[in-house]
Amino acid sequence: MLTLLDPDNPHQPFPPPAEALSEPNGLLAVGGDLSPTRLLEAYRQGIFPWYNPGEPILWWSPDPRLVLFPERLKVSRSLRKLLRKGEFEISFDRDFEAVIDGCAAPRPYESGTWITPEMRAAYLTLHRQGHAHSVECWYEGELAGGLYGVAIGQVFYGESMFYRKSNASKVAFVTLVEHLRRWNYRLIDCQVHTHHLQRFGAEEIPRDHFTALLQRYCAAPCAPEAWRT
Q1: Where are the alpha helices (DSSP H) in the chain?
Q2: Dihedral of CA 183/205/216/34: which sign?
Q3: Do 57 and 132 belong together in one domain?
Q4: Which enzyme class (predicted)?
């Protein structure tokens, strides 16, 4: 039975992730709000919000979980060649709002977006507080792609990416992972399986292993000034 979260009580505990449904995989709770307090607590426990416009807030913790260990990043020869050419410029936290808007924009292969106005506002607040970060990929002075996510301790939780020029999001992602490795991040949460991320070395691990890693790495210090590179 799903837990109903009180929108007026952001400190209400989440149920244990192990209580999530197997079908649909990982659905754990309904309702609540998108306050920074609730969102950060969710991420620390391996829970994330995902819902469509017009639906209540749905909270998920799927099993297995797709993750990338930064030191296991795989980059194809062709992408390495593109990176060496230096056609793209990468920045961090230069224009978070433009990145989340790019991720929320309609795509030809999708009927809508899960980044509702409420979600957008929530992550903008997290960004202003120093918890959510963006990676921008520029081509000839224009934003060509990027991604955003949430950082807690030595864990980066990827949320969404987009591109307007071929390979821009790939360049942004690879550059981010290489920086995270240098900044001593230990884990990147990719949420659910995609062949695209698997090609970069992402792998599925059991949920209980994932949550155990979070307990260790979320509590570890990581320099926030790194994002001001």
Answers
A1: 36-44, 77-85, 96-104, 117-128, 168-182, 195-198, 207-217
A2: positive
A3: no
A4: transferase
Q: Answer yes or no: do 101 and 150 share one domain.
A: yes
Whether pLDDT at 206 is above 80? yes
Percent of the chain clearing pLDDT 70 (strictly above): 97
Please tell me whether residues 106 and 94 are part of one structural domain. Answer: yes
Q: Are 34 and 122 in contact (CB under 8 A)?
A: yes
Find the CATH number of the domain harbouring 32.
3.30.70.3550
Phi, psi of 159 (to 5 degrees): -110, -55
Identify the domain containing residue 52 by its residue range: 3-62
pTM score: 0.96
pLDDT bucket at 56, cuts 50 / 70 / 90: very high
pLDDT over 70 (residue 111): no
Residue type present at position 200 = F
Cα–Cα distance for residue pair 228/12, rounded to 1 Å: 34
